[in-house]
Amino acid sequence: MTTEQAPSSGISRRRLLGSAGAAGAAGLVAGGAAGAYASEATRDAPAPLSSLGATAVPFHGRRQPGITTPLQAHGHLLAFDLAPGANRKAAAALLRRWSRTAKELMAGEAPPDDTGIALDAGPSSLTVTFGFGRTFFGKAGVEDQRPEALAPLPDFVSDALDPKRSNGDLWIQIAADDALVAFHALRALQREAADTARLRWQMNGFNRSPGATGRPMTTRNLMGQIDGTNNPKPADDDFERRIFVPERGEPAWMAGGSYAVVRRIRMLLDSWDHLSLERQEKVVGRRKSDGAPLSGGTETTPVQLDKVDKNGALAIAGAAHVRVAAPASNQGAAMLRRPFSYHDGFRDDGAPDAGLLFIAWQADPMKGFVPVQRKLDLGDDLSRFLRHEASALFAVPPGCAPGEYVGQALLEG
After folding, report:
1. Distance CA 81, CA 167 (A)
2. Phi, psi angle pair for 285, to nearest 5°
3. What region holds the Dyp-type peroxidase N-terminal domain (predicted)?
4. What sections of 56-133 are H helices per DSSP?
5. Which end of the chain has fewer surrounding CB within 10 Å, N or C?
């Protein structure tokens, strides 16, 4: 459990409001008890549901939540465009409303005029994160405050981008360990946009649920591969430098913030699933069973890019994904990947419309995402099984103190 994530004490107002319905259903509890115990007996000592629901992440703080917070099970990504005529004052009012609502929801409280979607539920590790797209600054009258790092991402060979699902003036990342809590936040924030901003696109994702494995493990993606082993760790000496804008960085309102690259990457799962296990492992450069690099060891063993096998060939092939994406292959470039998987049904040809909602955090996209993606474009075996279909870049300011709202230094500075 991190300093950002701690069990909530007491009863939330949202849960209290739902207790009236619980009282009316009390007569059902006794009759359903036997079934509940039988269901529990089929499980291997799961974590109590009360702990999942009771876990709260603070809204206020030095950083916005949802960056270093442990991955949650359900996620929604939304981009909005400012409505015609919406100016700096209107944008500030919107961010004030959004920040207030996010604070209440993350504490497990029901905002005014609540829809009741998440009655009875605790905070469930809910996080809400806000960001600004490149086009926001001109529309809001703060063009002189647009960061240089928010320059448009370059075109990549693998791009097949849908402009309707890319970019945007404003961005919200919502994540929680309960699907209803996550949707409740999505609905509440979308309603708060009112006439100030219009939804441009929305994407829904998921990860493994807490307690689904016998011990904490790195999550797997829809290809079945363990994904995220080489992520920078907060304990690393250079973590802050890689992920967050320096405290004296430019512009001043972004000091302590980060930049989020968002990509919708469809996986060609039918083609991937037809590969043998051995071939899949060579494409990635890791064992599928436990995530260990093909150079040997366990999942967390450092990758040895110069190791050869008994035949004198590289243990990790020259175009294997872990080799091409490794910081050692990209002059130290690294980013904090915090993705969600997605499945949006099936395409006309019967193939699954599924893959990864890739979210990468870094202090400077030109030193993080861009050089790595350029290298992957040149020769990554895994790229043959991926299609980049949407892309966006957002400036995510630092957190705010009680009584403030996210982005206040930009809009009122």
Report:
1. 9
2. 95, 10
3. 64-207
4. 88-106
5. N
* Cα dihedral across residues 371, 377, 378, 380: positive or negative: positive
63 domain-assigned: yes
For residue 193, the one-letter residue type is A
* Spatial separation of the C-alpha atoms in residues 400 and 394, rounded to whole Å: 18
Question: Is there a domain that residue 39 lies in?
Answer: no
**Comparing C-alpha atoms, which of 265, 283, 264 is closest to residue 274?**
283
Structure tokens at 312: 């004198």
Domain that holds residue 391: 48-412
- For residue 4, pLDDT over 80 is answered with no
Residue 32 lies in a domain: no
Tell me the pLDDT tens digit for each residue of 263-276.
999 999 999 999 99
pLDDT for 216? 86
Residues in the chain: 413
**What's phi and psi for 163, nearest 5 deg?**
-60, -25
- The number of folded domains in the chain is 1
- Measure the CA angle with vertex 251, ends 250 and 253; round to 5°: 125
Report the mean per-residue pLDDT for the chain. Answer: 89
Two tokens, residue 25: 């259903």
Query: Can you give the pTM of this predicted structure?
Result: 0.88
Separation between Cα atoms, residue 14 and residue 106, nearest integer Å:
11
Per-residue confidence (pLDDT) for residue 34, from 0 to 100 = 37
Q: What is the CA radius of gyration of the chain?
A: 22
Catalytic residue among 81, 114, 178, 227: 227
> Residues 283-293: what's their mean pLDDT?
96
- Is 227 among the catalytic positions? yes
**Is 42 within the bounds of a domain?**
no
Measured from the Cβ of residue 245, the count of other Cβ atoms closer than 10 Å reads 27
- pLDDT band for 332, please (50, 70, 90 cuts): confident
DSSP H helical ranges for 77-117 = 88-106
**Whole-number Å distance between alpha carbons of 47 and 49:** 6
Q: Which amino acid is at 1?
A: M
Q: Is the peptide bond before 251 cis (omega within 30 degrees of 0)?
A: yes
Q: What are phi and psi of 229, to 5 degrees?
A: -60, -45
Q: What angle do CA 188, 391, 337 make, to 5 degrees?
A: 80
Q: Are 137 and 143 in contact (CB under 8 A)?
A: yes
pLDDT at residue number 285: 96
